[in-house]
């Protein structure tokens, strides 16, 4: 799976949790999930669970804690899919 495909799916996963629709419209690999997209930090757990389900990977708690940007999530998924 290519990075662009993964990015598209990550954005789809984030969509229901994003409190800033304007930020979602301009989301990039550098977008900060909590700060820019206004995703409640408690909801990040739900985001990680959705990522695990959609991509069939297991995300360790230590790795989940490192996901700050959309790009971090994409990188994590691509590393888990290998």
Question: What is the secondary structure topology, with strand pairs?
Answer:
Elements: H1 3-14, H2 21-25, H3 44-55, H4 61-65, H5 70-80
Q: Can you walk me through this structure?
A:
The chain has 82 residues and is mostly helical. The chain has a single domain, classed as Orthogonal Bundle (Non-ribosomal Peptide Synthetase Peptidyl Carrier Protein, Chain A), CATH 1.10.1200.10. The chain contains five helices and no strands. Helix 1 crosses helix 5. The longest helix has 12 residues. The mean pLDDT is 93.
Defining traits:
Non-ribosomal Peptide Synthetase Peptidyl Carrier Protein, Chain A, 82 residues, mainly alpha, single chain
Number of distinct helices: 5
Question: Pairing-aware structural class of the strands and helices?
Answer: mainly alpha
The value of Rg in angstroms is 11 Å
Structurally, the number of domains stands at 1
Could you give the count of β-strands?
A: 0
Task: Please provide a brief summary of the model.
The chain is mainly alpha-helical. 55% of the residues lie in helices and 0% in strands.
